[in-house]
Amino acid sequence: MSSGMEEMGAVNWKLALCLLIAWLIIFVCLIRGIQSLGKVVYFTAIFPYIMLTILLLRGASLPGAIDGIIFYLKPDFSRLGDSRVWSDAATQIFYSLSACSGGLIAMASYNKFDNNCLKDSLIVALINCATSIYAGFVIFCVLGFMAYEKGVSVAEVAAGGPGLAFVVYPEALSRMPVPQLWAIFFFIMMATLGFGSQFSIVECVLSAFTDEFPNVLRGKRESIIFRSLVMFATFLLGLPMVTKGGIYLLNLVDYSVSGFPLLFVGLLECVALNWIYGYDKFADDISLMLGHAPNNYWKICWKFVSPIVIIVTIIFNIILYTPPTLGDYHYSTSAQVLGWFIQLFPMSLMVGMFLYHYCKDGGFQLMVTLMREKPGWGPAHPSDRSRSRRYSDAALKRAASTSGLANGKPHVYGSSVRLLNNTPSASGSATPIVDRRTGTPSRNNSTVFMLGNELSANVRYPAVYSSKHSLSSSKHSVATGSETCV
Predict the structure, then answer these.
(1) What does UniProt give as the signal peptide span (predicted)?
(2) Is the pLDDT of residue 304 over 90?
(3) Distance between CA 312 and CA 297 in Å, rounded?
C-alpha cells in the first residue's frame, strides 16, 4: 500500500488475477442473461443469511456481547439534531436499496404483466432494513467482546469504513472451532454478497444497450460477444484499483458514486413520473396491473414528500460537503476534482442524451411535445390492451390519425427504442414486443419512460398518447408497473 493516490505504483498481479476470476464468474452467470442469473441468485441470496445466523449464535455466547447489544440498541436522541446524520441516512438508504441505480428496474422488467410490483417493492425495502438490523446484532456482539477483552468502552472499538467487516467478523470466527474452515465460509459469503450486487448492476448496463440496439444485439452470438467485450472493458477499468495505491482510488469512487448521482436520478424519476407523465395516468396504469389504484398515501409520497426530501438532502449534502479521507490521508485537490467528475459524469450523460434526442428527432421540438408520450405507448400484448379503452387499438388508431401519424410510426422523443416494436400496424392491430430472453413476442413489455438514457421507472408497457387524446374514463384506465419510491 502506497502513501497516497500520487503514488499508485505497479499492479498487484495476485489481486489482478482475483479480479479477472471474479469477472469470469460474472460472465458465466450472465452469459445467457436473466435465465442463468435466476438460478445463481438462490445461492447468493440465501447463503449470507446462514452465515450471519451462525456468527450471531457464536457472537452472542462471547463475554461482553450483551454490552455491545445494549450499545447498539440504546438510542442517542441528541444526534437527531445533527443535520449530517439525516443527510447521511438518506444517502445511505438509496445506496443500500440500490434505488435509482437501474438494477432493480432491469430485474423487475422481466416480471409478468400483472405482477404485484407494489408488494414486491415493500418486501424488498422491509427485508433490506431488517437485514441491516440483523447484521448489526452480529457486529455489536463481537464489538462488545472486543471491548471486554481490551477493557475499554464499546464506543472506543467501534469504527466504520470498509475494514469493519474484515476486523469484526474474523474476530468472531477466530473464537469458533476449526476457525480456518469458518474463515473460508465467511469469505465465500462476502464474495456472494459482492456478486449478488454486481449481477444486477452489470445486467442493467447490458439490458440498456440491448434495448437501445435490438437489431444488433438480439442474436445469441452477438449477445455473447457483446457481453464478453463489456466485461473485459470493466475488468480493465478495475485494474487501477489493484495497484499499490488502488485502495485510495477505490475509496474515492465509493465516496463519489453513492451520493449525488443517486439522489439526482431519484429526483428525475419523481418529476418524470408524477409531473411530466402525470400521476393520474401513472396511477391508472398501476391499477391495471394490481386491480386497484394506489391510495392517497402513495400519491402524497410520490408527488410531494419524495421530491422534497430528495431536494433537501441534496442541499444539505452541498452545504455539509467535506472532502473524502481515508484514515489520516487527505485527498489532494486534483483527486477531489476527479471525484466530482465521477459524480457529474452519469448526470451529464442523462442531460446529454436528452439534448441529443431533442435535436435529432424532427429538429428542435417544443418542450411540451418532447415530453409527451408517443403513439404506440401501451401494453405489448393485445389481450392487455383490450382491458382498457385508453390502450385499445381503436384509441391507438384515433391518436395516430389525430397526431398525423396514421402509419403508426411515431417519432422518438427520448424514450426507449422498444416503443418502435410496439406501434400499431396499418390494420390497427398492435405488434407485440420481442422478449429479450427468448426472441419471441412477449407479454411482458419492460419499456420505460426515459429522460435521456436513464430508466426512470419500471414501466413494463408504454403509454399511448397525451391526455387530450385519451378515451379512457376513471373506470377504464390502464396501468403501468413501476419501481416504488420508498
Answers:
(1) none
(2) yes
(3) 21
Question: Concatenated DSSP letters for 320-349?
Answer: T----EETTEE--HHHHHHHHHHHHHHHHH
For 73-84, b where at least 16 C-beta lie within 10 A, e where not — what string? eeeeeeeeeeee
Q: How far apart are CA 448 and CA 191, in angstroms?
A: 32
Is 96 a known ligand-binding residue?
yes
- CA-nearest of 370, 372, 352, 371 to 361 is 370
Q: In this structure, are residues 446 and 347 in contact, taking their beta carbons and an 8 Å threshold?
A: no
Nearest to 420 by CA among 208, 212, 203: 212
Q: What is the pLDDT of residues 311-364, one digit of tens each?
A: 998 998 888 888 888 878 899 999 999 999 998 888 888 888 878 777 776 555
Q: Are 272 and 457 in contact (CB under 8 A)?
A: yes
Nine cell digits for residue 305: 414528500
User: In degrees to the nearest 10, what's the CA dihedral of 48, 52, 54, 59?
Assistant: 160
Angstrom distances, CA of residue 35 to CA of 30, 110, 409, 485 = 8, 10, 32, 27
388: helix, strand or coil: coil
* 128 known member of a binding site: yes
Spatial separation of the C-alpha atoms in residues 129 and 118, rounded to whole Å: 17
Among residues 417, 485, 418, the alpha carbon closest in space to that of 456 is found at: 485
Pairing state of beta strands 450-451 and 454-455?
antiparallel
Q: Which residue type does 256 have?
A: S
Counting residues of the chain whose pLDDT is more than 90, the rounded percentage is 20
Please report, for the chain, the start and end positions of each structural domain, with discontinuous segments joined by +: 12-244, 246-486
Is 61 among the annotated ligand-binding positions?
no
Residue 296 known to bind ligand: no
How many residues are present in the chain?
486
Q: Which residue has the higher pLDDT, 375 or 451?
A: 375
Instruction: Enumerate residues 6+ apart whose C-beta is below 8 A from 217.
Output: 209, 210, 223, 226
Maximum distance among all Cα pairs of the chain, rounded to whole angstroms: 81
d(CA 213, CA 436): 12
428: alpha, beta or left? (left if phi > 0; alpha if psi -120 to 50): left
Q: Which band of pLDDT confidence, cut at 50, 70 and 90, is reported for residue 22?
A: very high
Which 3 state secondary structure label does DSSP give 91? helix
Q: What is the pLDDT of residues 416-429, one digit of tens each?
A: 333 333 333 333 33
Single out the residue of 197, 194, 199 nearest to residue 37, CA to CA. 199
